[in-house]
Design brief:
The structure holds 2 protein chains of 2 kinds. By secondary structure, chain A is of the alpha/beta class. Chain A has helices at residues 2-28, 32-43, 63-76, 89-97, 116-123, 155-162, 172-177, 198-210, 233-243, 253-258, 277-286, 300-304, 329-343, 360-372; strands at 53-58, 81-85, 103-106, 129-144, 152-154, 189-193, 229-231, 247-252, 262-263, 265-267, 272-273, 288-289, 298-299, 315-323. Chain A has 2 domains: 2-137 and 317-372, Periplasmic binding protein-like II (D-Maltodextrin-Binding Protein, domain 2); 138-281, 3-Layer(aba) Sandwich (D-Maltodextrin-Binding Protein, domain 2). Helices cover 42% and strands 18% of the residues of chain A. By secondary structure, chain B is mainly alpha-helical. In chain B, strands 1-2 form a two-stranded antiparallel ribbon. The two termini of chain B are 37 Å apart. The chains are: A alpha/beta, B mainly alpha. The interface between A and B is medium-sized, with 35 and 30 residues. Strand 7 (229-231) of chain A pairs antiparallel with strand 3 (286-287) of chain B. Chain A: Residues 52-341 form the PBP domain.
Chain lengths: 374, 351
């Protein structure tokens, strides 16, 4: 009986989520996000040609986005291809600095203290490497809780959940954010990534920034909350969280949707914000850039700590790390073509792959930088 | 009467042996061998001998050098990181390597989880493998035994990622009620107490051990089967002649003869269990809590811990910490094999 009821609720949530997402993309695709992108893609000329097989390596978080880009690239520039090896950010940067690949995909900017910036400059024949934040993946606070389809959390409450400060779903701190919801007296089962990942790193950085001091464990690729249990990779955590009532995890949006997790709204101080294309776009637009000129290193704290109304703060920003100069002519031409396609027509399929398309203003910044690569 | 029957028996066996020709032929075929070797010693060594001897010796030296090189490589990579370790490497339960200026890591939990999960799998797999091997060599009709053996060997060819996914998605949920029953009924035994991860999610050493048992079963079975199959026919016939039942034949001839082989087969399986990686990274739940000697704890083994972190290595000092852990696994496996060798060496009476 219980399982049946359970199933019905799940079904409702799933149907609701489907409806919501369906509505979302219907309104947004022709609206804010894609019209501009589509308009631009016609306007921005892509100079195909150059090296026919580019290679890149790095972050697995942007693997699916790169796949979408490669498809668009192949359509725009017949016969051109790019091979992306999703071996992890660390490996990607190493291969890039060793001149083994044409550009790297990384979840975090090059580190000064590890000598990565100097090594990259050497690889680029004395020119600085640029960070192009091309792929934004919203991270969902996915949960499964029977009877609660709508939940709002704040950075502070999320931090307390993930470090054991809040143990029950009916904790007053959660109830205060969700007036009217009937929260069960159930233990919160935290599920985290047992492997080292950029998602964990960014999530912990978010908690550190947005929790008003409730998260004291610091950031890093290993989860440091000290509670719950770890599962391997995004697929593992989403599957685990979806299989037990009372579970919560942080995971990329597409995995949360695939496993029919409910997705919590985040209250950044100016009201609950739902995770959708528009709210994520707003957060990207509000982001400040730390780098100089065309080196678009993001100040993540400006996203995570943002209290802009209607901006969803929990994002994973991943960079393409390219040489500003120092490529041979063939490679430079191909890279520029690929990145241009990625920033324009490539954006169309991103929402389906669980990423956030670039808002227009940000897209222009990127295109300026891409044009300046020589 | 008694005297006469005793006297008659050897005569009877002697005559049947002579008639069958097998025992009679054996001394004949063995007899000429010593003279030929003696004759060879006098003649010049042929090039073929030299080449073969050289190849054999070369292979032997190569593998020793290779293993020594692995050991030295691990050691060289590990030492700089070990110097940076702020806590005791062997006794600490912490594992935090993200900040290279404050690396705190110890292998105690990894070691315990590795050993306990492997030992648990061995306890399950050993009797089952013994049963299968005995069935195949002693009880099963020949026509059935061969295809049956192939099927079991096939189990060894299943990729470990398949075992891992099967363990997590199929076996885990099936084991949940069993696990819950064990913890509620036998919870007073530390081994079955409620662990530091939830049983519902299946990421316990209990699940992992059972999957490991399935994985090492074919290895133990295959080797044991070969050994049992080589029990000298004379021993078996002797036991039958003395009026032994099937079980007594197995107990008095097959088992004593095959014991050393069975034990070393089990050690081979244990080696596989200790080093199993992918299946365990998928199954075992990570946990922030320390291992508390329960089968329903989570955690990570040496191999799974390394696999979980390897894709994000971007600093040799961080990587060195994991290499140091790998070195301990290397030593552990080495120790296990040494024990197995010692056991085999101590039971040479059948030769």
């Amino acid at each position: 009986m219980k399982t049946k009821r359970h199933g019905a609720v799940l079904g409702l949530i799933a149907a609701g989520a489907l409806l919501l997402t369906a509505c979302g993309s219907d309104e947004n695709t022709p609206g804010a996000g894609s019209t501009s992108a589509a308009g631009d893609s016609a306007a921005v000329p892509v100079e195909c040609g150059g090296k026919s097989n580019l290679s890149a390596e790095g972050s697995s978080a942007q693997k699916n986005a790169i796949d979408t880009f490669v498809q668009a690239y192949g359509q725009k520039c017949a016969g051109q291809n790019l091979a992306y090896n999703a071996s992890g950010s660390g490996a990607g940067v190493k291969q890039f600095n060793g001149s083994q690949v044409d550009f790297a995909g990384s979840d975090s900017p090059l580190s000064e203290s590890k000598g990565e910036i100097a090594a990259a400059a050497e690889r680029c024949e004395g020119n600085p490497a640029w960070h192009l934040p091309l792929v934004f993946g919203p991270v969902a606070l996915g949960y499964k809780l029977e009877g609660v389809a709508d939940l709002t959390l704040s950075g502070e409450v999320a931090a307390k959940i993930f470090n054991g400060g809040i143990k029950k779903w009916n904790d007053p701190a959660i109830a205060a954010l969700n007036s009217g919801a009937s929260l069960p007296d159930k233990e919160i089962k935290v599920v985290y990534r047992s492997d080292e990942s950029g998602t964990t790193d960014n999530f912990q950085l978010y908690l550190e920034t947005a929790s008003k001091g409730a998260w004291t464990q610091g950031a890093g690729k290993q989860f440091k909350g000290g509670v719950g249990e770890g599962k391997e990779k995004s697929a593992g955590v989403a599957q685990a969280a979806g299989s037990v009532d009372g579970a919560i995890t942080y995971v990329e949006l597409s995995f949360a949707q695939d496993n029919k997790l409910s997705i919590a709204k985040i209250d950044n101080g100016s009201g609950p914000v739902e995770l959708n294309e528009e709210t994520v776009g707003k957060a990207i637009d509000a982001a400040q850039i730390k780098g100089t000129g065309n080196d678009l290193v993001l100040d993540l704290k400006s996203i995570y700590g943002s209290s802009t109304a209607g901006a969803y703060p929990l994002l994973l920003a991943t960079y393409e790390i390219v040489c500003s100069k120092g490529y041979d002519a063939d490679t430079a031409k191909a890279i520029k073509a690929f990145l241009t396609v990625a920033a324009t027509t490539g954006q169309d399929g991103l929402a389906d792959a669980g990423y956030a398309p670039l808002p227009k203003a940000f897209q222009e910044k990127l295109l300026t930088a891409i044009k300046a690569i020589a | 009467m008694n005297d006469r029957t005793v006297a008659q028996r050897p005569a009877g066996t002697g005559s049947t042996g002579a008639r069958a020709g097998v025992p009679a032929a054996r001394p004949d075929s063995e007899a000429p061998i010593p003279p030929t070797t003696e004759a060879d010693r006098k003649t010049v060594v042929r090039p073929g001998d030299r080449i073969f001897a050289g190849l054999a010796t070369g292979s032997g030296i190569f593998i020793v050098v290779l293993i020594a090189a692995i050991g030295i490589f691990l050691l060289l990579q590990a030492i700089p990181s070990l110097a940076l370790d702020k806590v005791n490497f062997l006794t600490s339960r912490e594992w935090s390597t993200g900040d290279v200026n404050d690396m705190r890591y110890g292998i105690l939990d990894l070691l315990l989880v590795t050993v306990v999960s492997s030992a648990f799998s061995l306890i399950i797999a050993m009797p089952i493998a013994l049963g299968i091997a005995l069935f195949l060599t002693q009880y099963a009709p020949r026509r059935l035994a061969r295809p049956f053996a192939y099927v079991i060997d096939l189990l060894a060819a299943v990729p470990s990622i398949i075992f891992g996914l099967w363990g997590l998605l199929v076996l885990g949920p099936v084991l949940t009620p069993i696990g819950e029953w064990l913890t509620s009924t036998l919870g007073w035994i530390p081994l079955f107490s409620k662990g530091n991860v939830s049983i519902e999610l299946g990421g316990t050493i209990f699940t992992a051990g059972i999957v490991l048992a399935v994985m090492i079963l074919p290895i133990i079975t295959a080797v044991s089967r070969e050994v049992f199959d080589r029990t000298p026919v004379t021993h078996v016939e002797g036991a039958i002649a003395l009026g032994a039942t099937k079980w007594e034949v197995v107990r008095t001839t097959v088992l004593p003869f095959g014991k050393a082989g069975y034990v070393s087969a089990s050690m081979l399986g244990l080696g596989r269990a200790l080093g199993e990686t992918i299946a365990l990274t998928i199954i075992l739940s990570g946990t922030g809590a320390a291992f508390a000697w329960s089968l329903f704890d989570g955690g990570a083994t040496f191999a799974s811990k390394i696999a979980l972190a390897a894709p994000e290595f971007n600093d040799p000092r961080t990587a060195g910490a994991y290499i140091a852990a790998g070195l301990v696994l290397f030593v552990l496996t080495f120790g296990v094999n040494a024990i197995a060798r010692a056991i085999v060496a101590g039971h040479k009476e059948y030769e």
